Amino acid sequence: RFPHSLHGYFLRPGRPAHPVILRVSRDRDGRSFSARHVAALQDGEVIFSTLASFHVDEPGGELAAPAPTGVTSPQALAGFDFDGITEIRPVDLEEPDGVPCRLWVRIVTPLPDDRVVHACALAYLSDIGSGFGRIARDDLPRGGPSIDHTVWFHRPVRTDRWLLLDLWPVKAFGGRGVYRGAVFEGGGGLAAELAQESLLRAGPPAPRRPWNPSPGRP
Question: Phi and psi for 121 in degrees, rounded to 5?
Answer without folding.
Answer: -65, -35
